[in-house]
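The protein record quoted in full:

***
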Amino acid sequence: MDIPADLRFSTDHEWVRVEGTRVTIGITDYAQDALGDVVFVELPEQGANLSAGEGFGEVESTKSVSDLFAPVSGTVVEVNADLADTPEKLNSDPYGEGWICVVEIADASALESLMDAEAYSALTES
């Protein structure tokens, strides 16, 4: 299982890549593996306000439907519209082309509550 050291992680299996005051959000390799073949992604609307811990979309796979939970609060400034036509990118490249959205974070200190790669690895092994 791939857990990039430069990312932060939520207990809901979302990852965050910090880029200044913006973060890119996606689901982890662990999450996509547990879901199975992804067939549909419900993306948040650009301009939507996300609250940490609240649902902001869904991922549907051949096995189940799972909610996406915002790892941080902020405003959606970009969505990965390519996922509408190619949702399988969540499986094939969860940390690259399978990103879900970019959020302008409301409070950078919220990033401190997210796990580093080591802590996330421990979570997935328990």
